[in-house]
């Protein structure tokens, strides 16, 4: 990403209603199903949604009884919108650039929908992997969703990298074992379709 991410994303959320961005999901059912399955019903499992933005996902997890949910984002505006949706008031928030974040604890579940694909340079992807390795507990699961090979080439004015499941697994490296993968057709608020690839992988 050429521009400072904080500046870029604050600008995006300052000028757009969170329900009118291309990645908006009224019901994050695919992520909820993958997360619920990965933590095997353990409501105390520490879960982090990185680049969660204004997504309803963290609030839905808390409302479903998950007691240790964190959302990290570089945009304060997005985090404020996320907090306003949380009926439990229990979702923890981290305002930081993910690539320079120093996690203070470990999580059982790392969820990333539509963040990793903005990392078009190898140095940024290395930085992401280093943070993931610090944050995810051994035996923990990463749920990663990006644009598919036939997905959009750009999002929010930024170029993206596109992946199939093998490509995403390769990005995670040898420390991670691919456990499931698939495709998802995301319908934008203006009803165009964006093809996503998702994977789940466990950390050894
Ligand atoms: C396309 S949106 C996806 C939001 C959310 N995951 C969802 O599915 O609705 C990308 C999000 O990643 C955040 N983001 C981008 N780069 C980031 C970085 N380096 N550190 C933290 N958050 C970042 C943006 O602020 C934005 O909320």
UniProtKB/TrEMBL annotation:
Keywords: Methyltransferase, Transferase. Residues 47-140 form the Methyltransferase domain. The keyword Oxidoreductase does not apply. The keyword Transferase applies. It comes from Actinocorallia libanotica. It comes from the Bacteria. Pfam families: Methyltransf_25 (PF13649). GO terms for biological process: methylation. InterPro entries: Methyltransf_25, SAM-dependent_MTases_sf. GO terms for molecular function: methyltransferase activity. This is Class I SAM-dependent methyltransferase. The lineage of its organism: Bacteria, Bacillati, Actinomycetota, Actinomycetes, Streptosporangiales. CDD domains: AdoMet_MTases (cd02440).
């Amino acid at each position: 990403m050429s521009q400072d991410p904080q500046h870029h994303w604050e600008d995006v959320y300052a000028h757009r209603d969170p329900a009118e961005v291309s990645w908006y999901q009224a019901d994050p059912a695919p992520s909820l199903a993958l997360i619920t399955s990965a933590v095997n019903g353990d409501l105390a499992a520490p879960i982090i949604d990185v680049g969660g933005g204004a997504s309803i996902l963290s609030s839905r997890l808390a409302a479903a009884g998950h007691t240790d949910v964190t959302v990290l984002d570089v945009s304060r505006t997005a985090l404020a919108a996320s907090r306003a949706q949380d009926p439990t008031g229990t979702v923890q928030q981290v305002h930081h650039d993910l690539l320079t974040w120093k996690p203070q604890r470990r999580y059982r579940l790392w969820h990333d929908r539509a963040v990793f694909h903005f990392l078009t340079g190898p140095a940024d992807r290395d930085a992401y992997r280093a943070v993931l390795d610090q944050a995810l507990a051994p035996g923990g699961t990463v749920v990663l969703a990006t644009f598919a090979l036939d997905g959009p080439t750009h999002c929010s004015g930024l170029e993206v990298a596109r992946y199939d499941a093998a490509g995403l697994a390769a990005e995670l490296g040898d420390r991670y074992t691919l456990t499931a993968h698939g495709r998802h057709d995301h319908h934008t608020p203006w009803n165009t379709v964006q093809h996503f690839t998702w994977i789940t992988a466990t950390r050894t």
